[in-house]
């Protein structure tokens, strides 16, 4: 056994001891015994050291398991003896004692090299996993963490994470599986890094990463969190993630057994880590369980204030600990670099350059009134707009002016730090980069508004810039003394240098890296990269002076891989991020604090490394020494440099009681309210151009004695909310606007919660509504279909009365072939006549007579088995004469007995007729076609009959069909097969052929009776309250398309879907008067979702009545009463049905109920399946909605023509006002509401009108869906709203006083009220496109055989055009008391219903071009791919879209000129379809040929 292997084994044992709270003395004893090859089984000694027997056994068992893993034999516990260790082991190095020696490290490194390689977090690869061995000082910290809560304070690179790994392993060993360990880190990158470390060492448990990108803001209930955390033992996340989970009571602290705080020095003040610990202290004070705490920090005590250490310890309820016993080992690992302070002279009296002077002039000459932001605010009459305009003008502050000011300020800083050449280069590069980006319209400044980019570009074009002169002679180039000193220090080392240069400003990083990369001396020795921090907010605008374009992490990755050896970066490199050790660290700017000093120094971990501090000649000489003194004294935190305002904010303590929900434990305090309020407002609506941001209005109140003014705040919320929630005042006055706004936001959030718009976890309800609707399995396991025959079998012999119907087999002319009395011991269902198909040209109908009730003793003998025997005996189906069929059949005119009539008569020419069947020697039935005195050519006998005499009589016979399923029509025209048989080998049935026909039809007849019995059972049980009068509607509704019954549910589902949508929209709008449209839509989606409906099917037992499988009779056997009596009634079988089918059946039954008894029956049916909703009738809903809007008989003059246009006079004019008011209108001081709720309602009303109109036509379900889509889509409604006009007289007076009157027209869409400049611009753009293209679209709508998808999409009409139409419909519906007639009249007047009728009458193709193309390509099993991209820009700043379509990998067409993705893809698909269709007509089978000339 090697020394390394021995050391690894003893270390494992030691770790087990420590993890189980065994004394360090015992662990050391075990280690020493193994090291010096003394038998470790000196159990007496181990007992004396306090090692319990069970733990000794556990330790040895673990060693044995390790030995078995490595293939050693016998087990280690039996082999640790002097004899088992050779003398060669003495020569093996174990350096240091706590980890494996060089034998495990590749490359044959020397001991010195190994010591450098094995840092505190040493990773040694083997074939199975990563093994990280703890050093003595790490084990010391681990032991301390087992005793109490501690903060491990060790330098960067000394392996603090390994202490956490050991502590986590120990916690996993002792805590239950219901407990979770939570590892917290400040950044996502650090979380990912620490996750990898934990997973590499802790493999037996589930470890998960949880960050904001996982979409946790939508996890609105405990169930989601519990599902995520199921079987998870360790979670790694940022601080904020856990804080949010704790605040909303999704994760309770008593569920956590250990909290690890990485970079724990951040946990002060209002840091999320500190707020988490607030909850910790509350639980601890209340006597509730709390987790253990482990903090990790390289610099936990960093202030000259003596009480700072106590603050951190008090916050984390922990004591700060550094190694003491093994401090020397720690110091040997933490290589302290040699520190050098290099001074430089500060520049003085340096004049600004001509480029800087030009930039200053342009900035000062900016006309703020031409700024796009000011122009937009001046056009915005809302209160918000006025407030923002005054603030901007008062401070002369817009985004553009801030960017210019920032560019000027940074150029001055760069001149001071780097020199005049650098300042000019910075200005040149920033301006050139911006102008090039604007011209090319690339993605670099994509967040900027087009007008802002143009405005700034025009200003920057006037700045006099020139290309900086080449950087060749450094003596003549104006670079600063500071840069020269840096260059000198970089060139000083003669060995290979790997270094980091820390710089304060991002812009300085870019310019300094450029200078060094082109410096003639530096570029020969260094490969240079950069690393800067970025905002986590993806929507943040790119700043004008941001020059670093490369990937934010590319420089770091190149540094790690050795592709670069000098990394220039900001403070982002200081902590947490895994940066390779280097031998030179340069602090280019003054180190801001002790934390930065320690962490930057920790990056220089190589031996003989240097820490270079560039200090000005004016820096006090004792300042750097002061850092060393502070560190040695363990004084935490740096001197506070925050502004006076921040001090005031932090010192002003809030006495506002937090919002607490006892049911869940969720709590929201003063400091969290603003972010939560903004999140809530974003969830309110999905409307375009609705500004959902809350904004604040501040009011200052003078105080006595000329003290600072006290400030109160009013938060204004979106118009989507009810009036009483739109404005909230702060509860008190404050010294700062920040705290006043927090107070107002908190009061608003409390009011929103009390109004029922938040759940008990204090999160918006919308996510909660949608969560269930978004998850649905494809197939569900449900109960087997209910069989009526078990009940029928038990009823036979128990009933005194029987139920009978006469079944007649009728031909197409109405002639009756035969008739039988069918009897059941249960009421016989009312069968509709059904058709039976004999062959492609022959079919009969089965008609059922009136039901009669007869005494049981009058029932005559059953003939059903005899009929089955006649028709099925040749198929080897043996009937049981001692059994009874579930259906009793008896001819009223013929006596038919089993096995007594089939093939009993000898064939005699005199007796031959077509009323009887001929059977061969095997009993197979045939139809007689001719009698032949003899068989002569060309007639031939079958091979098996070739030996028969041809001079005797022969019969020409037609074979009985092989098919068993007579319920479904025969596909194709198949000719019957004929053959020739000797007459003496044949026999003839002694019964009429119609009886055999009827016997063949018995499986189909029983099936039809069965499905009617199923439908009746459903009506009598689950649907009893509906009171269906037409059972055929129910049978249709429960018949899936796959069942292939005479009818299926698809048409009824189409109708029921619309009815359910209408009831749901009306009910939720009436029941929740405070809910905004976003909430209503989410609630409706949840109620009508397929997920909820399929669950309703299972919950109510409807799944037992669904007909899914097709009847084929392939394996049909007689249904004997005795078989059902013997069956196990308690056995519940399962089957699988698609969840979409299950949901469709519910909607189909709603449609069936409507057809059977109107809206009342439909509502009753809905209540059965969705009982959790407090459903309202449409009248009731209308009444509630009417009462929610204040009554007014006066209409604003501007809307009077609108009422005339729609042709409906409102009783409550406020409804029309509300319908015409967009949420951007901003009348926040009034009691009015916006259109959103009415639009939500009107959408369902319009759908109901269209579906009712479609229902009048006998269309296939697919065509019904396509027709609805074509007539209610937003593009068509928007175009109709632009065409639908009301006339208006315009009077003009000339200069001469002559009055002229002209008639103009006002389109419907112009009556919508809003004050959004962006919305107005969108309207004008749509109006221009409409004027240019309306004639072609009108012609297509009036005459074309194809729906104008492409032309309508090219109009790109904003959705709010169609929303306005739907909101007006909703207002009319409410005002009319729920009457559909006036709403339908509006749809008629607008032109929607006339166009629908034209589509049906003229057969207009309403299939979308993309569907056409997909179907055509699918015929040849070819795939279609769309490649859409943005190219270039047009004059108004919009980008042009191009789409290329590939079919089977070959380009068919490429088109451009699109204004939206929808339009360009439809246009390309239309062209591709026509091209392929033409090739198909040319006989090329749709194959793609040359595409020359197809690129447009």
Provide a descriptive summary of the structure in words.
The N terminus and C terminus are likely disordered. Strand 1 and strand 2 form a beta hairpin. Helix 50 packs across helix 51. The longest helix has 31 residues. This protein has a 7-stranded parallel sheet with strand order 5-6-4-7-8-3-9, sandwiched between helices. Strands 10-15-14-11-13-12 form a 6-stranded parallel sheet, sandwiched between helices. Strands 22, 23, 24, 25, 26 and 27 form a 6-stranded antiparallel sheet that branches. With 1496 residues, it is an alpha/beta fold. The protein is built from 51 helices and 39 strands. Helix content is 43%, strand content 14%.
Topology:
Elements: H1 3-19, H2 24-35, H3 43-48, H4 53-70, H5 76-79, H6 111-117, E1 124-125, E2 130-131, H7 136-147, E3 150-153, H8 160-174, E4 180-185, H9 188-201, E5 206-210, H10 222-229, E6 232-238, H11 239-247, E7 256-262, H12 272-285, E8 292-297, H13 308-316, E9 319-321, H14 327-333, E10 338-344, H15 354-364, H16 372-378, H17 383-395, H18 399-418, H19 420-440, H20 450-460, H21 481-491, E11 499-502, H22 506-518, E12 528-531, H23 554-561, E13 566-569, E14 584-587, H24 594-602, E15 610-616, H25 622-632, H26 644-651, E16 659-661, E17 666-668, H27 673-682, E18 695-701, E19 710-716, E20 727-729, H28 737-754, H29 765-774, E21 779-783, H30 788-795, E22 801-810, E23 816-824, E24 834-837, E25 843-848, E26 852-855, H31 864-872, E27 888-891, E28 905-906, E29 918-919, E30 925-932, E31 954-959, E32 978-982, E33 987-988, H32 993-1020, H33 1031-1037, H34 1050-1071, H35 1077-1088, H36 1090-1100, H37 1121-1126, E34 1134-1138, H38 1139-1169, H39 1178-1188, H40 1200-1206, H41 1213-1219, H42 1236-1255, H43 1261-1272, H44 1274-1283, E35 1285-1293, E36 1299-1307, ...
Parallel strand pairs: 3-8, 3-9, 4-6, 4-7, 5-6, 7-8, 10-15, 11-13, 11-14, 12-13, 14-15
Antiparallel strand pairs: 1-2, 16-17, 18-19, 19-20, 21-34, 22-23, 22-25, 22-26, 23-27, 24-25, 28-33, 29-30, 29-33, 30-31, 31-32, 35-36, 37-38, 38-39
Helix pairs in contact: 1-2, 1-4, 1-8, 7-8, 11-12, 15-18, 16-17, 18-19, 18-22, 19-20, 27-28, 29-35, 31-32, 32-33, 33-38, 34-35, 34-38, 34-39, 34-42, 36-38, 41-47, 42-43, 42-47, 44-47, 45-46, 46-51, 47-48, 50-51
